[in-house]
Amino acid sequence: MSAIRMDGKMVSAKVRGSILDEVNRLKERGVRPGLAVIIVGEDPASQVYVRNKERACEECGFYSEKYALPEETTQEQLLGLIDELNRNPRIDGILCQLPVPKHISEQAVIDAIDPSKDVDAFHPVNVGKIMVGNFDFLPCTPAGVMQLLDEYNIDPKGKNCVVIGRSNIVGKPMAMLLLHRHGTVTICHSRTQNLKEVCAQADILVAAVGKVDFVTADMVKEGATVIDVGMNRKNGKLCGDVCFDEVNEKAAYLTPVPGGVGPMTITMLMKNTLKAAKLHAGIED
Ligand SMILES: Nc1nc(=O)c2c([nH]1)NC[C@@H]1CN(c3ccc(C(=O)N[C@@H](CCC(=O)O)C(=O)O)cc3)C=[N+]21
């Protein structure tokens, strides 16, 4: 038996449709969400993601601005642009695509963004709010995973949830959101002993490693839900962290790459930008 494919593209289309409906209602009140996306340098993968974000803005009826800066941009110049965007009333959300070139401090960039425009939810103020469970913005990739779980009626409550990866962008906030929903959460990483055994206990396994074919069938419990957050290239082709074909025979639910978590991530960015626009306009949910 093969797993049920969790269709992030389909769920995304649905959510973006409802965002567009709300944007059309907001229009009557003179509110239009605006997102600024900054990309520094020429990383080809980043270019694809940024293009997908622009397309999502169009689908949702947002105003958007894109700043493609050359690799040589100084930190001072980048922080100058962020400062301008912080003060620009047409802009509700600011996203600076990571990674930034090595001569720029990633943390300095994150810290410079006005927390009320931090639609990635990477600023320490927003990270802290997530930790205590009282937040405006959810981190996009983990929020996308939670929405996918909800769509397929998979409730983390009381379940063994194992997250592989401890990055600030995915692993750590993913663990926190699963914990908020009453999962029993384990975070695994490169130093974890008995990684395979720990993963094989998971009812919900989230792979955010960044390594092709990292999750093999022997690491998956029969009937588990397996969420693949990986975005890797193998012979030029996009693939995740999970050996899809073999895990497909063991898991009950599985996300594909592409078409799983990726589109959901961008859709959650749209949700956060809409939320930011409402907060800036003083509109309560
Ligand atoms: N400040 C910041 N915020 C981010 O959210 C952020 C970032 N930096 N840096 C890079 C990662 C990666 N990321 C993706 C978003 C969408 C897809 C996506 O749309 N994937 C499609 C296909 C993409 C393709 O065809 O290559 C899919 O999985 O179906 C992938 C990756 C956001 N990130």
Automatic annotation (TrEMBL):
Reactions catalysed: (6R)-5,10-methylene-5,6,7,8-tetrahydrofolate + NADP(+) = (6R)-5,10-methenyltetrahydrofolate + NADPH; (6R)-5,10-methenyltetrahydrofolate + H2O = (6R)-10-formyltetrahydrofolate + H(+)
Any one Gene Ontology molecular-function term assigned to this protein's record: methenyltetrahydrofolate cyclohydrolase activity
Span of domain Tetrahydrofolate dehydrogenase/cyclohydrolase catalytic: 6-120
GO biological process per UniProt: L-histidine biosynthetic process; methionine biosynthetic process; purine nucleotide biosynthetic process; tetrahydrofolate interconversion
Domain Tetrahydrofolate dehydrogenase/cyclohydrolase NAD(P)-binding, first and last residues per copy: 139-280
Superkingdom of the organism of origin: Bacteria
InterPro entries: Aminoacid_DH-like_N_sf, NAD(P)-bd_dom_sf, THF_DH/CycHdrlase, THF_DH/CycHdrlase_cat_dom, THF_DH/CycHdrlase_CS, THF_DH/CycHdrlase_NAD-bd_dom
Annotated NADP(+) binding sites: 165-167
SUPFAM superfamilies hit by this protein: Aminoacid dehydrogenase-like, N-terminal domain, NAD(P)-binding Rossmann-fold domains
Keyword line: Amino-acid biosynthesis, Histidine biosynthesis, Hydrolase, Methionine biosynthesis, Multifunctional enzyme, NADP, One-carbon metabolism, Oxidoreductase, Purine biosynthesis
Transcription regulation listed as a keyword: no
EC number: 1.5.1.5, 3.5.4.9
This protein's pathway: One-carbon metabolism; tetrahydrofolate interconversion
Cellular component aspect of the GO annotation: cytosol
Family classification: Belongs to the tetrahydrofolate dehydrogenase/cyclohydrolase family.
HAMAP family: THF_DHG_CYH
Assembly and interaction partners: Homodimer.
Protein name as it appears in the record: Bifunctional protein FolD
Native source organism of the sequence: Butyricicoccus porcorum
Annotated gene: folD
